[in-house]
Structures are given as structure tokens and as C-alpha cells.
Specification:
about 150 residues; Nucleotidyltransferase, domain 5; 5-stranded mixed sheet
């Protein structure tokens, strides 16, 4: 603390330079330590798809597909989007394993796929995996041209 004697009497001032130095050192310490903090939320990063995919899907798998024209299929059966939630709720009510796959074209807007994910969560799906329609095996599609 410094004191100055002037015409108007004694004026006491605090030298704040050491306090600012301490503040800057603490600021630097917190800036360095903040990125090192461990977060409590685990993040699962999707792994690249294997080069060879299985030719047939397990019969108990639930796969919801969305095409570019926004048609929705549940296990290769066409379904209206407004009936999908009720159907999935009924399916998940009877199952112990509540996993499902959403398959869509990679050029679909994310918002359209998010609508399917939201319906699946409300229906009771525990784990949802996303599949790219372009990477699916050629012989697992529908047999339109086989007649």
C-alpha cells in the first residue's frame, strides 16, 4: 500500500500490479488444464464397414430403409411413415434385444434420417445403427427383375 501526501491530505492507494500478475498466471494455468479434463460422456465412433458384408441378414434383425423418394420399408415391406412408430412399438414390446438398423442412401438429408431415429427412440429402440444403402450386397436387394 502506498501513501502520498498532497495538498488535499493523505491518499492511500493499493498497488494492484502483483494481483494482476497472479491473475494472469492463474488464467494461463486454467487455460492449459481445461483441455485435459476428462468428460463423463462416452462417445462411440463408428468403425469403417468391412469390405465383405454378410450376404444374408439375420431374420430377427429390424431394418428400416428410406429411399431417395422418401418411401419407407420395414424389413423390405413398404410402410407408411405415420404407421411406423406403432409397428415398431409393438415389435420392441415383444423383444428382449431392442437393436435396429436404419439404412438409407448417403445423399439423403440428415434431417430425414433423424426423423427415423426419433421414431425408433420413441418406439423403444435401445441401439440404432446407421447403414449406407450403397454398400449393401447386390443380391440382398429385392428381386424385381427376377421374373
Amino acid at each position: 500500500m502506498g501513501m502520498t501526501v498532497g495538498k488535499k491530505g493523505i491518499v492511500a492507494t493499493i498497488n494492484i500490479t502483483p494481483y494482476i500478475d497472479i491473475l494472469l498466471v492463474l488464467l494461463i494455468i486454467f487455460m492449459v488444464a481445461a483441455p485435459l479434463k476428462q468428460h463423463d460422456h462416452p462417445v462411440r465412433v463408428p468403425q469403417p464397414a468391412p469390405k465383405v458384408q454378410p450376404k444374408d441378414v439375420k431374420p430377427d434383425s429390424i431394418i428400416v430403409e428410406m429411399d431417395l423418394d422418401h418411401t419407407v420399408k420395414l424389413n423390405n415391406q413398404a410402410m407408411a411413415l405415420d404407421k411406423l412408430e406403432a409397428t415398431l412399438t409393438e415389435v420392441f414390446r415383444r423383444r428382449a434385444v431392442k437393436n435396429m438398423f436404419i439404412r438409407g442412401d448417403s445423399s439423403l438429408p440428415y434431417g430425414d434420417v433423424f426423423v427415423l431415429m426419433d421414431i425408433a427412440r420413441r418406439s423403444g429402440a435401445a441401439d440404432i445403427a446407421l447403414l449406407d444403402k450403397n454398400n449393401r450386397p447386390a443380391d440382398s436387394g429385392s428381386a424385381k427383375g427376377s421374373h
